[in-house]
Amino acid sequence: MKKLTVAIDGPAGAGKSSVAKLVASQLHYLYIDTGAMYRAVAWLTGEKGIAADDEAAIRQLTDTMQIRMQAAAQGCRIWINEREVTEEIRSPEVSARVSAIAALPAVRYKLVQLQRQLAQPGGVILDGRDIGTVVLPHADIKFFLTASVQARARRRFLEMQEKGMPTTLAQVEENIASRDYQDSHREHSPLRQAPDAVFIDNSEWNLQETAGYIQRYIEEKQG
């Protein structure tokens, strides 16, 4: 049975990563967390004190940085320059700057090349903002997963509460709305639905319902 290349795109908080992890586990596919890659770069620029709009300094940083990923029970672990940052990259500070960092051509070029290399063997699920439109335009299956701003904010707020991250629902909703605008209006690789992507609004679905739908779709395509 041929293992396929699957792309899942959508805005922040739609549950792309959680769904992709669950489906990959069920199908014995490799989950590649592309968002974590961009978050790692955003984290590193913050650690180095580099402003999110200092493109020259960030370009220089991407020339020497090394990113490593490893499959784990809950998705994947990630290192940048040999430091594990799996937990650190989920902070509100990183969330606030990742869209600006991800929009920079130097960052996108570096990470897109790495993502394509990882996906080449097939049997992979990648999620992000531009997987089906830019990174893997010829992916075997593409999904565009979204939900209302309010539904996405509630999910992210509960997730951050469980991790003990101090924030409010209003702050999370404002951050998500701001990221939606930045992601869909950036000059390079903006967030948009690929013409051949399967559209899914999971505002009223839970994780298991969303993952179940996607898993069945992939299994039917596999034959």
TrEMBL record:
<feature type="domain" description="Cytidylate kinase">
    <location>
        <begin position="6"/>
        <end position="219"/>
    </location>
</feature>
<protein>
    <recommendedName>
        <fullName>Cytidylate kinase</fullName>
        <ecNumber>2.7.4.25</ecNumber>
    </recommendedName>
</protein>
<keyword id="KW-0963">Cytoplasm</keyword>
<keyword id="KW-0547">Nucleotide-binding</keyword>
<dbReference type="InterPro" id="IPR011994">
    <property type="entry name" value="Cytidylate_kinase_dom"/>
</dbReference>
<dbReference type="GO" id="GO:0016301">
    <property type="term" value="F:kinase activity"/>
</dbReference>
<keyword id="KW-0067">ATP-binding</keyword>
<feature type="binding site">
    <location>
        <begin position="10"/>
        <end position="18"/>
    </location>
    <ligand>
        <name>ATP</name>
    </ligand>
</feature>
<comment type="similarity">
    <text>Belongs to the cytidylate kinase family. Type 1 subfamily.</text>
</comment>
<keyword id="KW-0418">Kinase</keyword>
<dbReference type="Pfam" id="PF02224">
    <property type="entry name" value="Cytidylate_kin"/>
</dbReference>
<dbReference type="InterPro" id="IPR027417">
    <property type="entry name" value="P-loop_NTPase"/>
</dbReference>
<keyword id="KW-0808">Transferase</keyword>
<dbReference type="InterPro" id="IPR003136">
    <property type="entry name" value="Cytidylate_kin"/>
</dbReference>
